[in-house]
Structures are given as C-alpha cells and as structure tokens.
Protein: Phosphatidylserine decarboxylase
Amino acid sequence: MKNSFRILSFVFAFTIFASISTISIAAQKVAVPDDCPCKRSITNLIEAYSNDKVFKVLIDEAFKNMQPLPEGYMKGGNPWIGKSFADLIPFFVEWSSFLPEAKGSSDNGLKYIEQMDVFAYKNPFGRAAFQTSPGVEIFDLFVRERGEFLSSKASTKNVAKWLADIRIEKEEYVLPDPTAADGGFKSYNEFFSRKFKDINKVRPQTMPDRDYVISSPTDAIMNPIPVTIVDGSTQLRTKGTQELNIKELLAGSRYWNKFVGGTALSCILMPNTYHYYHAPVGGKVLETRLVDGALIGMEDFPKFAPADGNVGAHGASFGAFESYARGYFVIDTGKYGLVGVVPVGLSTVGSVVFKDKFLKAKGPVTIKRGDELGHFLYGGSMVILIFEPGKYSSGAIKVRLGNQIGTFDTDSND
Structure:
C-alpha cells in the first residue's frame, strides 16, 4: 500500500537513527486506575514506551514536532504542543470512559477523537507512532476495550439526555422501552446503532422504480471528492491535486480497474444521526470484503474536518483512507456500470459491520436501492461512493423539492 509503504520507509530510516541514539528509555512511573476500561491497552502503551527504543523515539519526536493548528480551528490551539508522553497516559485514561453529550445542534462526540487526530497533524512521527507496530496493535486494543465499555450498561449514563433532544427525533426510532427516560437501551452502542420503526416512512426512496436515481446511502454530510482516481502504478503528483489510489482503497479487488478515471462522493456521518448505510443503487452485489487497517493518523485533520463543519469539502485529503479500516461492496447496476460503496472506519471506528447475507454469499446478491448493507458503532465514520468513468460527473449534489438541505444552529435542546 502506497501510504503504508511511505510510513514503513520512514520508520525503517528512523530505526537506524534510533539504533545509534543514546536516548534513555527509563520507565515512566505512570499509574493506570484499576477501574479504567482500557487498563490493558494503556498499560501496554507504557510498557512499549519503556522497553521499545524505536517506539519511544517516535513518541518523543512526535511531541517535539507538534505543529500549530490553523488559527481558530480549536480553542487553545494544538493541545499537544508543550506536552510529553506523561500527558498521553491521563488523556487515554480519560478517553476510555468518556461519554458524549449533545447540546442543541452540536455535540462533543468527537472531543477526544479530534485531539488524537491532531496528534498526527503534519507530523510524520505522530502518524508513524500509531500506524506501525507496536503502536498500531496497542491502539487497536484500546479501541476494542473502549468498544466493550460502550457496549456495557455503564455507558448509558447520558443516553436520556440525548433522547431528550428533539433533534434526535426519538419518536421515529425503535426504543426497547419507550416509557424509560433512556429508552431502555442496554448500552451507548445500542442507542448509537438504533433503527427506524419504519424506514420507508421516515426515509422514503426517491422514485424507487427509476434506475437512474442515485440515493444517499445514509444520513450524512455529502461532498464530491475532488480528486483524480488513479491506478496503483501512477507516480506523478500534480501540485494541488490529491490522488485517490483505487487499487489500494478496494484492497486489490478484481474490479478496481473499472473505476480508474471515474468519480467519487464522500458521505460523512455525524455522531447524532442514523448509523446504518444502505444501497445507493439497485443491481447485483458482485463482491464484498472487510479490510483491516489503521484507526488513526490523518495527516491534515483540520483540512478534512474544517471549523465550518463542511467535512470532506473541496481541498480535503482522502489519500489516508487507502490504509484505514474499511470494507467495500461492488454493485453491478447493469447499464450504468459498476458502483463501489466503501464504508470507512474513521478515527477509532473498528466496527465496520456488514449484513451476514453479503459476507456469506456464494455468488451475486440482488439488491434494491435502499436495501440495508450494514452499520457502524460509535466513532467517526464515512461512506465513499465510486463510479465508473462517464457515469456520474456532477460536481455538486442535486436535491429535490422538499428534501432537507440542513438544520438551524442552536445551543438549546428545546
């Protein structure tokens, strides 16, 4: 993989530096509370820093090379500037049991995710630390342990507050116990992955019998991806142009070359919305695959998720997603060619979940536009739609009369 190769090359060169370095690797005396949901992974982090010389150097150099964020992007600027490894441990301890809260049209669901992503902001040491061993395994374990916490009863503490917000539109969802303030949900993840009572009523498909219509796969912020889709052999990079390596993104699918020269859309899911994704077109699912990958380490998170909230807008870099945890569906629409649907687990989402009928299929699976494909659990997540050349060329999203184009901003939950 192109991104992985660059990171590994960087680490190899840095290993040589570390092998001749005289930097001390004395253990840091940092205690992890016994009741911490992620005690094992955080303990592993401390041990790796104490015993793995290369990992320690990467972490230390990451802190030395922290970059200022764009002005006004985050209150107080980059929170890692002036910090050290000793500050990383309490950060992970606090994050391990963090439960998001909503306030009007906004929420703090990405609080720790954003801070972890800016750890790698224009910082090759920060990216390499958690995208190569042992950091990648430690962070993967952290995500799994935090996922277990978010699937426990203890994680329901703030669910009642979310359901009290009219923007959650709880009346449209299946609630285990509609009379309970917390809806009877047994965990935050159960609340997060809630399902509609009647999806055909609350999210009806536009003219379901018209095969030329492309639907949004989920509730999302949508933008065209302004990149050139290239094959795996392309070396040339044009100033101001971010290439999307389709072969890497589709993990070597036998259909990847069909999309070379094609177009793509990004669909970014927000923490307070519906987290199932559906077929944007009808046809036959020819291929389905889940792909392991990194869960953190975007080079320029502020550019991808700007302060104005237009996530994935023009100028955002999508190249990092070639190496992120993800999956893909290749759908044959017939006369409109193949369409790729790529759910991506952004920033700590290790739970890209597909319906069993696709994973266990022995041959093509016929689907209708709007059929459920899978879902995400808590974290940042997106779906990328990919089209063959000449099949979808619009540089803007087209909407019809009466469809939502946004919601008013407010600090109130009333």
Summary: The radius of gyration is 22 Å. The mean pLDDT is 83. Residues 2-153 form one domain. The chain has two domains: 2-153, 208-387.
